[in-house]
Write a structure and sequence with these properties.
Elements: E1 5-10, H1 19-28, E2 54-61, E3 67-74, H2 83-87, E4 93-95, E5 101-103, H3 113-117, E6 124-129, E7 135-140, H4 146-149, H5 156-160, E8 166-170, H6 171-185, E9 193-195, E10 205-209, H7 226-264
Parallel strand pairs: 1-10
Antiparallel strand pairs: 1-8, 2-3, 4-5, 6-7, 9-10
Amino acid sequence: MATEYVKFVDVTKCDGCRACMVACKNWNDLPAEPQDFLGSAQSHTKTTADTWNVLQYIEHENSKGGLDYLFRHSACFHCTDAACEKVCPEDAISYTDFGTVVIDHEKCVGCGYCVNNCPFEVISLKEYVDKNGDKYRKANKCTMCTDRLEEGLQPACVTTCHTGAMQFGDKAAMIQKAEERVKQIKDRYPNAMVYNPQGVSGTHTVYVLAEKPSVYGLPENPKVPTSAVVWKDYAQPIGKMMIGATTMAVVGAFITNTIISKKKNGKNEDGGEHHE
């Protein structure tokens, strides 16, 4: 089995250069996506189907009354218990041995359930046009460069980060580094914390945040929606069992009716004459 990995993002080391965004675009061959001027250095309001990671710029008044300019590399969290995987009716979303969550475009039907249920709002639908001119949609998001991981490489965004704000490695080692980093910066950032939400059984993008999650537009305690749990863990399996039972009942009824019909027509099951 492959090693389970974590991308560790220390927002206190980020200088907002956006090299991670450029590297992601280049490696994944994502098209440019012109945006209206937002009145700040931030280029996009959030991730989209063609922009899988976004650098957030946040002006925040700290507890001492001073102004902090906060940055955050925003991309898919690759939840251990992913709501998107649970709600996908086509089993198009799955986990890899690395801990990443990926979308199979061959199976995706563009229903949008994953978009509506992601607690971090990082999945989007992209519209395509086939050779006949018909439009169809597919879900898109960060893959954590799973194709690079399979070749023993690190995610493109990590390799281009010149400040060391992003590291990538064994899950336990990265989480330990995050916890140690929080201890180092507590004097400067009293609200500093490791963001690895347990409501989704932990994530494979773990942050050291300088402030509370809400300051960065993140949910304080994200959880897999109850409806998703009911659907994936209860309704779907029961539904499949019922479909299986129904199929068996139909087959059984067909066989029984066939035998009765043959007997009525004076034939044995083997095709011979039936005698009373």
